[in-house]
Amino acid sequence: MAVNLDKSPLADAAERICKELPAHRVEILNGCMSVTQPPGGPHQESLTWLVEKFFRAGARQAGLRYMQGIGLWLPTGPDDYAVPDFSVVHADYRDALVEKNRYAPHVFRLVLEVTSSYRTYDTATKVDAYARADVPAYIIVDRTHDEALLHTDPADGKYPDPQRFKRGQSVPVPESVGITLDLSVATLLDGDGDGDG
User: Fold this and answer.
1) By the 8 A CB rule, do 14 and 32 touch?
2) How many Å apart are CA 150 and CA 148, to the nearest integer?
3) How much of the chain exceeds pLDDT 70, in percent?
4) What are phi and psi of 91, to 5 degrees?
């Protein structure tokens, strides 16, 4: 069901920037707008590899959809939304449209971000926003520290301390997502999935 929200000057500005810089990502969290440049090749390779992994694991048959760049409406402010790098959602996510290709958080089972130059945005601001939206699982691929962090089971708007995984390890996709799958940390970091089943 679509909901028509009144536009604010911030929402208007975000819409204009999306039109003027179509390859850039525009997000509003806690009433602040962020614009990031298009990601590089290894970043996109990691996301393509994720699509392949979820396909081979039978996510569609499990009633899930997995995609890049889908809008997640956030309850943290009237105009707040994020565009996670990768999301796993319920198959009926389209019924949860809030507005402008942004969907209600209850259909999101997992979101994943690969850190960029705005690392703090992914490792602090979005941790808070996704926990407050009650997203069951949030994976951060932290290239600065060469690790992946897994946040799960938010309670009272907060995630407990994350589990940390280094190269040579795999991140287990939590059962709450609805599929059994392990994700190689090295491939998440480097984007080279050759030979990684």
Assistant:
1) no
2) 7
3) 88
4) -60, -30
